[in-house]
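I am writing to request your help with a piece of structural work I have in hand. A protein sequence and the structure tokens that stand for its backbone fold form the material at issue. Please examine both parts with care and let me know of anything in them that strikes you as inconsistent. The record follows directly beneath this note.
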Amino acid sequence: MAATPNDRNTIIQILKESHTVAVVGLSPDPDRASYEVAEFLQQRGYRIIPVNPNVSEILGARSYPDLVSIPEPVDVVDIFRRPEAVPSIVDQAIQIGAKAVWMQEGVENAEAATKARASRLLVVMDHCMKKEIRRLIEEGVLVPTGPQPSLPQG
């Protein structure tokens, strides 16, 4: 049975089994959410592949203009684009054989999600990977890796 979007088990499976994350719409601006999330993922051992046609490198990794230009396998496509841009991104995710599509907070496209699931991709919509990882670490479901945030003193 295909997993439904945002099913807890789907979120856990993606986060545990994925190693390479193509971040579509990754901004080179450290103040943008896409940069913050990608940096967080990178610090926890995920391999980040920026997808942004306007820059050559972000977070020390080569940036590609689109998913089909990436010369290696991608586990999950993390989308930081407007909902109307999602269908073409999902088409490319299917084309490259990605295992999952993750639409960040504020990004939902039910039609694209249905198409992705029909092609056997796992789908999450309107959730933040960083927040989900933190929540699952707190619950003991995920083991923390990489640099740990400092705890408040006092």
Residues 8-138 form a domain with the Rossmann fold fold (CATH 3.40.50.720). The beta strands are 20-24, 47-51, 57-58, 61-62, 76-79, 100-103, 122-124. The chain has a mean pLDDT of 91.
